[in-house]
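Supplementary Methods, section 5.1.

A reviewer requested that the exact input to the structure prediction be made available. We therefore reproduce it here, unchanged from the version used in the analyses.
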Amino acid sequence: MRAAVLHEIGQEKLEILDDIEAVGFGPGKVRVRVRATGLCHSDLSAMNGVLPQPAPFVPGHEGAGEILEVGENVSHLKPGDRVVICWLPACGACPACKRGQTELCLAGFMNAGTPNFKRPGGDVFGFAGTGTFAEEVVVDAGCAVPIPDDVPFDIAALIGCGVTTGLGAALNTADVEAGSSVAVIGCGGVGISAVQGARLKGAAEIVAVDPVASRRESALKFGATKAVSPDELADAKQQVTGGEGFDYVFEVVGRSATARTAYENTRRGGTLVVVGAGAMDDCLQLNMFELFFDEKRILPSMYGGGDVLSSYERTIALWRAGRVDLAGLITHRVPLAEINEALDQMRTGTALRTCIEI
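The structure derived from this sequence is encoded token-by-token as follows.
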């Protein structure tokens, strides 16, 4: 079968190979025919080494498709079922799951160290234990979440990561208060989803911050009340909050520099939500006096900060009701053979989300 492979960390381009085999099928596993997958910035971060991932590997973790085969002891799925790939499944038995913090379950991360594929040259890993830039993938049954027939594969793919992460940051982690002021720094697919989440919660002012003009324009269509470049953020803070700072600031880039900017633009007693996934050696500096004196809440948001399955269901309900726009997030579409074009679209910021049709 075909798959897009990164041979070494740091390479900028993927190679489309047709000698890949999905491996690991057996009890508790399912084989999925991938139909659509989104390109998330985390895929680029894994490719360039910001996020740890053994190579060679098949990127992709935001996908949807249909079940081809189920292993023994899998009773809730059958061939033909339509599913979204969940790259962070909950085991239901660990301390985090028992506390109700299923987004902190480490079971999914354990899968990342086991090869999902092989080719004549050796083993190939799947990013985050999945690897959806492939025609087929074998995953734990818990990674395949059934979706209703009315949800298209491209929409379902977005729900698998970016939309759930962004919406959840506003709805779950921050629990944005109606009438509040919000700034979102970084307005790709995840950031735009955070904008939509803040709008759903009734934020009075939502300032979208991004260096790319087309993304700022898109943010206004999705609910932002103002869109500015990073250089204009100080003026927006003055105009919207009288210089005090925003009630909530979402950092959706994953860099210490933007996290520091987010902190400085959060009002005293306000909330900074860290959504972007950054490097382990990129450290955010805060002095002990400001940390105490400003009493700002710093809330990291992992995969939307809530139960993933409930978040999927909620997103589908909101989409059906027309309360969130998911189709509009897909600004580009390419076949798997043109995956490197999608990478360029992500790097330049011309795309909110590119759908790779497989």
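The chain is about 30% helix and 25% strand. These observations are discussed further in the main text.
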